[in-house]
Amino acid sequence: MAAVGSKLPEGLPEGLPEGRYGRSRTADAAADRKLKIIGSVLGVLLLGLVGWFGYDYIDNQKVSAEVIKFDILSDTTVEAHLEVRKDTDARGYCTLRSQARSGAEVGRADFRFDQRTDRIDKTVTLRTTSKATSVELLGCHSD
Predict the structure, then answer these.
(1) Which of 68, 60, 44, 62 is nearest to 122 (CA)?
(2) What separation in angstroms does the CA of 33 have from each of 24, 45, 105?
(3) Cα separation of 114 and 92, whole Å?
(4) Contact 88, 118 (CB under 8 A)
(5) Contact indicator for 137, 67 with CB cutoff of 8 Å
(6) Each residue of 110-137: pLDDT tens digit?
(7) What pairs with residue 93 in β-bridges?
(8) 0.85 surpassed by pTM
(9) Residues 7, 10, 16, 20, Cα dihedral to 10°
(10) Tens digit of each residue's pLDDT (9 = 90 or more) over 65-96
(11) Would you say 86 and 142 are in contact if contact means Cβ atoms under 8 Å apart?
């Protein structure tokens, strides 16, 4: 170490010695830039993958349906208006469930559809073990 007021030997650069106090700020900036690029590329790939799976799910959905309305006819019978949208050639079934006020299931049935049309409006009757308060579409499946 040089004494106060003395000059540095010739040929040595002024400033801090290389590597003595960690990486330089330019190396940190380069590492940060590289991480940002890698993160952006991975984020774009993830968004593309999620979009692909979403499109594939919707595209392969052959049957969809909804319960338009239902009427409680008696303590053991419920009538439901079911609307099914599907591919013209698709065949399958929809499952309906009926529940009592307590939430207990009091009826369940599968209803088939084999018509060669893309939209079916059908009124179906569901038998129950006790008085129902609701009808719910559990799902539709194609064969």
Answers:
(1) 68
(2) 15, 19, 58
(3) 7
(4) yes
(5) yes
(6) 999 888 898 999 999 999 999 999 999 9
(7) 112, 141
(8) no
(9) -120
(10) 999 999 999 999 999 999 999 888 888 899 99
(11) yes
Please tell me whether residue 69 adopts helix, strand or coil conformation: strand
Q: For residue range 34-72, list pLDDT tens digits in order.
A: 999 999 999 999 999 999 988 887 766 678 899 999 999
Residue with tokens 């559990």, as numbered in its chain: 138
Mean pLDDT score, 18-26: 64
Q: Locate tokens 């084999």: which residue?
A: 114
Residue with tokens 């088939």: 112
CB atoms within 10 A of CB 79: 15
Query: How far apart are the C-alpha atoms of 124 and 143, rounded to whole Å?
Result: 20
Closest by CA position to 117, among listed 83, 80, 86, 94: 86
Residue 6 has pLDDT above 80, yes or no: no
Q: Would you state the structure tokens that stand for residue 76, as one six-digit string?
A: 């053991």
Phi then psi dihedrals of residue 35, to 5 deg: -65, -40
Confirm if 142 and 93 have CB atoms less than 8 A apart: no
